[in-house]
UniProtKB/TrEMBL annotation:
Taxonomy, superkingdom: Bacteria
Annotated keywords: Membrane, Transmembrane, Transmembrane helix
UniProt organism field: Rheinheimera mesophila
UniProt domain VTT: residue ranges: 39-159
The protein, known as: DedA family protein
Classification of source organism: Bacteria, Pseudomonadati, Pseudomonadota, Gammaproteobacteria, Chromatiales
Gene Ontology CC annotations of this record: plasma membrane
Alphabetized InterPro entries for the sequence: DedA_domain (IPR051311), VTT_dom (IPR032816)
TM segment ranges: 57-80, 100-122, 134-160, 172-191
C-alpha cells in the first residue's frame, strides 16, 4: 500500500503553495504548544521543492517554534492548574509529565536543548519549563539553539541532497511511514 508515497507527492505540491510559508509558521508555533505533528514534515518538502528558500524556511520554522515554546512556557507558568493539568489527566499522561518533571530536576536547562533538537515531544518541555519556573532567558536560548540546530540540519540535508534526495525519499517514504506507525504502536504499548 503506497499511502505515504501519495502523501509525500501531495506534500511536495502543497510546499509550492503561495501560503505554504504561513502554514509552516503556524505548524511550527502550534507544535511547540499542543499539536502532535512536528514541523519537519512540512519543512523538508518545502526545502526540497524550493531549494533556494531552504534557509529562509529553516529560520521561519525556528523562530515560530521558539515563539510557540514561549507560549507553552507561559501556559505552564500561569495556567498549569486550571488548564494544563486537567488536560494531562483527561489524556492519561500523568506518568509522562511526572517523568518530564524528573528530567527537569535532574538535567535542568540541558533537557530543553535536547528536547528542542530530538524527536522527543518539545511541547512537554515548554510547558514543563514554565511549571518548574525555569529561568526564562536560559529556556529561550536553549530552545533557540536546539530548534535551530534541528531545523537547519533538515533544511541543509534537503538543500544539499536536491533531486537525488527527493527521489530517494520518495522511494523509501512508505517504509519510513509504516515503520514510524509500528514504532509508535510499540511505544504506546510499552509506556501504557
Amino acid at each position: 500500500m503506497k499511502i505515504f508515497q501519495w502523501m509525500y507527492d501531495k506534500a511536495l505540491l502543497w510546499a509550492k503553495h503561495r501560503h505554504a510559508e504561513r502554514y509552516l509558521a503556524g505548524l511550527s508555533f502550534t507544535e511547540s504548544v499542543i499539536f502532535p505533528i512536528p514541523p519537519d514534515v512540512m519543512l523538508a518538502p518545502m526545502a526540497l521543492a524550493q531549494r533556494h528558500k531552504a534557509w529562509r524556511f529553516a529560520w521561519v520554522t525556528t523562530l515560530f517554534s521558539v515563539l510557540g515554546g514561549i507560549c507553552g512556557y507561559l501556559l505552564g507558568l500561569w495556567l498549569y492548574e486550571p488548564l494544563v493539568l486537567p488536560t494531562v489527566e483527561y489524556l492519561g499522561h500523568q506518568e509522562t509529565f511526572a517523568k518530564v518533571e524528573h528530567w527537569f530536576t535532574t538535567y535542568g536547562v540541558w533537557v530543553v536543548f535536547i528536547a528542542g533538537f530530538s524527536p522527543i515531544p518539545y511541547k512537554l518541555f515548554t510547558v514543563g519549563a514554565g511549571l518548574m519556573q525555569m529561568a526564562f532567558f536560559p529556556f529561550v536560548i536553549a530552545s533557540f539553539i536546539g530548534r535551530a540546530s534541528r531545523f537547519f540540519l533538515v533544511a541543509g540535508l534537503m538543500y544539499w541532497g536536491g533531486e537525488k534526495m527527493q527521489q530517494k525519499l520518495r522511494d523509501i517514504v512508505d517504509w519510513l511511514g509504516w515503520g514510524t506507525v509500528a514504532l509508535g504502536g510499540i511505544l504506546y504499548l510499552v509506556y501504557r
